[in-house]
Amino acid sequence: MRDMQRGRRPYWRSIRAYWYWLAVIALLVFQWVMYPPRPGPPPRPTGHGVLTEGIHAVRRVVDGDTLLMASGARVRLEGIDTPETVRPDYPVEEWGPEASRFTKEFVKHAGSRVKLTFGDDRLDKYGRYLAFVWDGDKMLNEELVRAGLAEARLGWNFSSALKRRLRLAQDEARRAKRGIWSD
Q: Which of 8, 43, 44, 90 is 20 to 30 Å apart from 178, CA to CA?
């Protein structure tokens, strides 16, 4: 009785609260395991139509790592990241204009027709296609990295052989101190 007068809880109440919260947590964990949250709808492709692997016409180069295809679809170069040049409310980054020029020259040399190949993830969260862009046996993604105009992003879901190519190209650019790796 004294404990209740001083405002303390009796011992049995604190044990009951402990078991109550333990049961609530166990129920929530059970529910999460049995009925995991479902991801939202998959991203929808930007532009018109569905891109397949193969030769496609390029309408224009948006920036160093993004192309607008003749079909209206946007293609983001997979496995790399170039400095920004056209991002709204964001300054043009150092080496960004050079990366854009490099990509324009690559596409021009290919006659504005490039081959696209895809990794495991077809679209990014913005609805852009994630692709490797080729002119014959030259891969634009790799050439940008080798020139020091892009950083390899190897955490994405694509083949280990292509990851190895990008890693080697980046190592070469770093050793030679090209572009973004220069002092």
A: 90
